[in-house]
Amino acid sequence: MTPRLAVRKTYKMYINGAFVRSESGRSYRPEGNADMNLPLGSRKDLRDAVRAARQAQSKWASLTAMNRGQILYRIAEMVDARRDEFQEMLGGKPRHAQEVEDTVTTFVWYAGWTDKFQAVLGTVDPVAGPYFTFTLPEPTGVVGIVPPPSHSLLGCARHLAPVLATGNTAVILAGDADTRPQLLLGEILATSDVPQGVANILTGSVKELLPWLSAHMDVNAIDLSGCPEPLLADAERNAAENVKRVYRFQPVAPLSPYVMAEAIEAKTVWHPLAR
Asked: What is each CA distance from 16 to 53, 176, 199, in whole angstroms?
């Protein structure tokens, strides 16, 4: 009996709460892994992801801090439950086990900050007048994320978790290397009570898609931590043309409440003092 050909696993992107192939029909096989197909996202896929993130943002921001924290904690639980699968995808070495452990810690850590960052990042402002003023942090809106290609799982988690914790929605451009860990994270998001559109994960050429992400008028901030140096200047220029917030961490964002400050806006409220 003639042996059948191996069935290649076909991964899908995670957009608007659904697993989709690229509308272009394109796919690629990462170097050294000929037994799988990964989707090669297009500009249309990027626009769909941004639209989904915009539609979901106000509802996500309106959830209570406790509810957002519960969802982030659920993500941590689901990553922990599939740690062996993640470790195998990453390479199966002890350092990869630590990366999965650090990813779990990241989501637990930011889950605990959802009801605390307002107190740390907000302030009561001293003013010379009969006024009481205070500054409160508010979500920026839709945040584009280019995670660092190294530490593919932890890098994605460290840049996504603070964005979600502060009430923003995210469009992640994972790149076109071996992006299975990020796509598996999409499966985690889909089973962790994350509302559709809140987090979207695309795979595809950063060189092709980053100019459109950085220039998109409905993206309010962009994290360029994983942006290749040759593309950085153009991405910053595109973002500046529509006054988009730009930030960058090297190589992976630290665990710090001040990382959340990059994805928020400060709103100052004035009240006259009673006499």
From this structure: 7, 20, 8
Please give the class, per CATH, of domain 9-272: alpha beta
* pLDDT, mean over the chain: 92
Q: Is 174 helix (H, G, I), strand (E, B) or coil?
A: coil
Q: Mind listing the pLDDT tens digit for each residue in 120-167?
A: 998 888 888 788 888 889 999 999 999 998 888 999 999 999 999 999
Secondary structure (3-state) at 265: strand
Cα separation, 167 vs 60, whole angstroms:
6
Is residue 178 a contact partner of residue 33, using CB atoms and an 8 Å limit?
Answer: yes
Residue type, 268: T
Residue 222 to residue 214: CA distance in whole angstroms = 7
What's the first-to-final CA gap in the chain, in angstroms?
95
Asked if 50 and 242 count as a contact pair (C-beta separation under 8 A), the reply is: no
> Distance between CA 192 and CA 161 in Å, rounded?
13
How does strand 27-28 pair with strand 245-247? unpaired
| Helix, strand, coil percent values for the chain (each to nearest 5) | 45, 20, 35
* Long-range pairs, 232-237, Cβ under 8 A, ≥24: 235/210, 235/211
Pair 271, 133: CB distance under 8 Å: yes
**CA–CA separation, 53 and 204 (whole Å):** 18
**Domain limits of the chain?**
9-272
